[in-house]
Amino acid sequence: MKSNNVIIATVLFLFLMFVASNGNNIKSYGQVVDRTYVNENCGLSINYPSDWKLEEKIENDATLPVNYIVEFQPSNEEDSAIVGIELDDISHLPDRTLESIKTSEENNITMGERGIIETSETISIAGYDAQKIVYTVLGENNDRLKKMETDVLAYNREYKITFDTSSTSLYQKYISTVEEMIRTFKINEPTFEEIAC
Q1: Cβ contacts of 172 within 8 Å, gap of 6 or more
Q2: What are the tens digits of pLDDT across the range 61-109?
Q3: For residue 122, is pLDDT > 60?
């Protein structure tokens, strides 16, 4: 009986070590955010891992209320994980408070019962109040995909940072990297020149 307990304890210990070491591998992937993307016209900068690629998405149309600025994603083509930044012009809204934007974004997520909000919290980013919303949406095969949206209000714009993946395991793999990227996000006074921010 005593040897059975020792065997069970040993197996449990080895299993926990395996889980811990795999968890550490996931958390440590891409932790170094050593490159900087800067867009002076839109007044933003953010650091990202040097092993990720970026694609600017700017459309030079001042009539558009939403301007997609840039997307970052791992260079590994098999990992469908995207961090995007967009700017929404909210200058025309009668209520430009964070509470109003929070309500609007949460309604967009849950509209038609497609999204379920897991957490929604007010945080500070780059010295500005922001709303961080973690939610799930229904994916293929009826599995729920986890996503995150962070909304920062500055200069009559909503700076929206989104994190979108094709699976919950990819969300877990990259979330610590994405949170580190968001910690480096800075907003300076935009010039709003040449492009429609």
Answers
A1: 26
A2: 656 656 889 999 998 877 889 999 998 888 889 999 999 999 999 999 9
A3: yes
Q: Between 2 and 86, whose confidence is greater? A: 86
Beta strand pairing status for 115-125 and 66-74? unpaired
Q: Is the pLDDT of residue 179 over 90?
A: yes
Alpha helix segments (H runs only) across the chain: 2-28, 98-110, 168-183
The token pair that represents 52 in the structure block: 């990720």
| Cα(158)–Cα(133) distance, integer angstroms | 14
Clarify whether residues 66 and 12 are in a common domain.
no
Range of the domain at 134: 32-187
Answer yes or no: is 197 within a domain.
no
CA 94, 86, 124, 145 torsion-angle sign: positive
43 with 15, same domain: the answer is no
Clarify whether residues 44 and 126 are in a common domain. yes
- CATH code assigned at 87: 3.40.1000.10
Residue (of 192, 195, 182) closest to 84 by Cα position: 182
**Nearest alpha-carbon partner for 43 in 105, 98, 85, 93:** 85
The rounded mean pLDDT for the chain is 82
What pLDDT shows up at residue 14?
45
DSSP 116-159: EEEEEEEEEETTEEEEEEEEEEE-GGGPEEEEEEEEEEETTEEE
